[in-house]
Design goal:
By secondary structure, this protein is an alpha+beta fold. The chain has one domain: Alpha-Beta Plaits (2-Layer Sandwich). Helix content is 22%, strand content 16%. It is built from three helices and four strands. The strands form two sheets. It has a two-stranded antiparallel ribbon with strand order 1-4. A hairpin with a 2-residue loop joins strand 2 and strand 3. Bound molecules: iron/sulfur cluster (2 copies). The site of one iron/sulfur cluster has 14 residues, from helix 2.
Length: 77
C-alpha cells in the first residue's frame, strides 16, 4: 500500500518570502500567495524535501514522525 503524500508545513512568520522553495519544487506543489509560499497542490508533493533543504531560514519542514527509541529515553533519565 502506498503511504499518503506528506506536504510541508510553512512557518509564515519565519519565512522571508525569498521564493527558493517555490522555484526548487520539482512538482509545482508550492505557489506564492500574499507574498509567502503556500502548498497549493498537496497531492503533487512527493516529500522529496528539496524545499526544506533549500530554505535559508528553516521556515519550511516536512512532517516527520519520530518514534522515540526507548534506549535513548533510558540514557536521558
Ligand atoms: S517536499 Fe518536494 S515535492 Fe513537496 S513541496 Fe517540497 S520540494 Fe515540492
Ligand atoms: S525558501 Fe524558506 S524563506 Fe524562502 S520563501 Fe520558501 S519558506 Fe520562505
Amino acid at each position: 500500500m502506498t503511504p499518503p503524500p506528506s506536504s510541508p508545513w510553512i512557518d509564515r512568520m519565519t519565512c522571508i518570502g525569498c521564493g527558493a522553495c517555490i522555484s526548487t519544487c520539482p512538482t509545482d506543489a508550492l505557489a506564492r500567495l500574499d507574498g509567502k509560499p503556500t502548498v497549493t497542490a498537496p497531492n503533487r508533493c512527493t516529500a522529496c524535501a528539496a524545499c526544506e533543504d533549500g530554505c535559508p531560514v528553516g521556515a519550511i519542514q516536512l512532517p516527520y514522525f519520530i518514534v522515540p527509541n526507548p534506549i535513548w529515553e533510558e540514557r536521558i533519565q
